[in-house]
Specification:
Blueprint lengths: L2 H15 L3 E2 L1 H15 L2 H7 L8 H22 L8 H22 L5 H8 L3 H6 L3 H19 L2 E2 L4 H36 L10 H18 L11 E2 L8 E8 L18 H4 L4 E8 L5 H8 L10 H6 L3 H7 L3 E6 L12 E4 L9 E2 L2 E2 L2 H11 L6 E6 L33 H27 L5 E8 L4 E2 L5 E2 L9 H4 E8 L1 H6 L4 H7 L4 E2 L3 H8 L2 E2 L20
Parallel strand pairs: 1-2, 4-10, 4-11, 5-15, 6-7, 6-10
Antiparallel strand pairs: 3-16, 5-14, 8-9, 11-14, 12-13
Helix pairs in contact: 2-4, 2-5, 4-9, 5-8, 6-10, 15-16
Length: 556
């Protein structure tokens, strides 16, 4: 073989056999340098967004921030860098960091506690959808490559005295450099973090380590906490001759108001609802959170968004329990990954694919199966009841799997979970097709309720949160609420009330239509449902009941 041709093979062979010998401190230092530079690109992009990249001061600030990050990470990592454990622990950190860096880089995801709650509550089907070719390539580079490098390092043997002195020296040097870097850039860094608190959720690996610890500790606490009762004094204020009440609450998933046809969207994505004469569309509704883990419990709990906390949600009963205290039969029908605790005290039924074979495929059921389940539930007995339908809705990123092929009206549609492979137009098309299918599902719910002559029937549809489809470089949802775009917090809400229901409750339908453009939020759901069902309880707040202003004074 000619010398020039043999050179590359010799380089590869030499690199393959090269196994450096490092102390545990040196290995950790190299790892934290890699973390700080290559796994924090979204952080650096946002942190330096307002700086002049040609100015020397910018690079001095960047250098100080980078040194501070490296030293801080080193002081944390080295605390568990024992000779026999350092490689397995660093491997695990690289694995998680590779996943985190992928979603922060490609989708603009912020890994705060609520996002980690979502991750911990993700079911198998949701997880499988995220395993795209793009993710696997990213893992090969950001997990596979550094892992191979770690395991080819020989850890230098050392006596415990030398190891202790060496570690103290490294820690002392890191502390001095950290303090110096903070001192030199304190004004810039403190201003940056004070005005952009969300940036801390982009600092890898600190974002997922801290958030994971908080999420796991709260889950452990909830497992050992009995829920406190709410509204035990509740009762139904009914009149003689009233028909039993049947209210269906449809909890939408990831539907945003911007693409809702009834809100004036350029596409008519809700054509069937538009033809329903008794539908009332609320056009200005905001969500409690930007993820299911927050919004779903928040919308069914007594405190509003301002006072909501995960600990309260874990420790107190929900609206559904109050309705049960009042004597209503309450059932939760689920086509999602659970109710996040709000249905703990009531009958809960998850849709099983084997029960709806024609509507289910690959472990997932289309939302029309909820309508079939609702029909079965209604026919069971004639009593006052509330049925909650928890949709699969527009759950991303596989929007194309949320509707049957017949609903692919807007084309070309994105037919992969790897959104990076699709244009924004194709992503929006598949998302709008899923909204179009929800329109049919809601129309079928209304038709089902219209056939219930023995009931006074009503339906409330309300989405849990919205979705970003590429605006501002963001995809999916879960952005911290303080900086969340309108696409993730502005959600659709629709009511349908039968004439029997409105008459029994003394509701002026024209009044409701006139108030439908006023601002509302998830905060209103708790008290509005109590008001609509005539449930009397000391915890009811009239001011939060949307329907109250349209209820005749003579009605209960």
């Amino acid at each position: 073989m000619p010398p020039l041709l043999s050179l590359p093979s010799k380089i590869v062979e030499t690199a393959w056999h090269y196994r450096p010998t490092l102390s545990t401190e040196q290995l950790v230092l190299w790892v934290v340098v890699i973390f700080s530079v290559f796994y924090n690109i979204p952080f650096w992009q946002q942190a330096l967004a307002g700086y002049d990249l040609l100015a020397a001061q910018t690079w001095l600030t960047f250098a100080n921030m980078l040194l501070a990050m490296i030293c801080l990470n080193f002081l944390v990592f080295v605390s568990f860098a024992f000779r026999t454990l350092v490689k397995p622990i660093l491997t695990l950190l690289f694995l998680i960091a590779a996943f985190v860096s992928y979603f922060t880089s490609y989708y603009g995801t912020y890994f705060d506690t609520s996002m980690l709650d979502n991750v911990l509550q993700t079911d198998t089907n949701e997880a499988q959808e995220l395993l795209t070719a793009g993710l696997l390539i990213h893992l090969a580079i950001f997990f596979g490559l550094p892992t191979v490098m770690i395991w080819r390092v020989n850890i230098a043997p050392s006596t415990w005295k030398k190891a202790m002195l060496r570690r103290l020296a490294y820690c002392l040097a890191s502390t001095v450099i950290l303090l110096l870097a903070i001192f030199l850039s304190y004004q810039d860094v403190s201003s940056l973090m004070r005005n952009n608190k969300q940036l801390r959720y982009l600092v890898t690996p600190g974002n997922y380590i801290v958030s994971m610890a908080q999420a796991l500790s709260s889950q452990h606490a909830s497992a050992n906490t009995a829920r406190l009762p709410v509204g035990e004094d509740a009762y139904i204020s009914s009149q003689e001759g009233d028909k039993p009440t049947l209210l269906v609450i449809v909890v939408g998933e990831t539907a945003r108001a911007a693409n809702w046809g009834l809100n004036g969207y350029e596409r008519q994505t809700t054509p069937k609802l538009a033809l329903q004469p008794d539908v009332i569309n609320f056009s200005d509704v905001s969500s409690c959170g930007t993820s299911t883990a927050v919004s779903l419990p928040c919308m069914f709990l007594l405190p509003g968004r301002a006072d909501y906390s995960k600990s309260y949600a874990q420790q107190h009963e929900s609206l559904l329990d109050v309705l049960a205290h009042a004597g209503l039969e309450v059932t939760w029908l689920d086509n999602q990954s659970g109710c996040k605790g709000v249905c703990e005290g009531v009958t809960t039924k998850a849709l099983l694919p084997e029960d709806y074979a024609s509507m289910c495929q690959d472990g997932r059921c289309m939302d029309e199966a909820l309508v079939q389940a609702l029909t079965t539930q209604i026919s069971s007995n004639l009593v006052d009841q509330v049925v909650v339908l928890h949709q699969l809705g527009n759950h991303g990123p596989s929007y194309y799997q949320r509707y049957p092929a017949a609903y692919e009206r807007f084309v070309p549609a994105c037919t992969t979970a790897d959104l990076a492979k699709c244009s924004r137009e194709a992503i929006t098309n598949s998302y709008d097709n899923a909204i179009l299918y929800t329109d049919t599902v809601l129309d079928q719910v209304i038709e089902t309720l219209e056939r219930q002559d023995d009931y006074a029937t009503a339906m409330i549809y309300l989405s849990d949160h919205g979705e970003s489809l590429g605006e501002k470089g963001l995809y999916l949802h879960g952005i911290p609420y303080a900086i969340a775009p309108d696409e993730q917090t502005h959600v659709p809400m629709v009511w349908w009330l039968s004439s029997t229901f409105s008459q029994q409750q003394g509701l002026d339908m024209e009044c409701l239509r006139r108030t439908a453009d006023q601002s509302a939020s998830h905060d209103n759901l708790f008290h509005t449902v109590l008001g609509l069902l005539g449930v009397a309880t000391d915890i009811y707040q009239q001011a939060e009941d949307i329907s109250q202003v349209c209820r005749q004074p003579s009605s209960r």
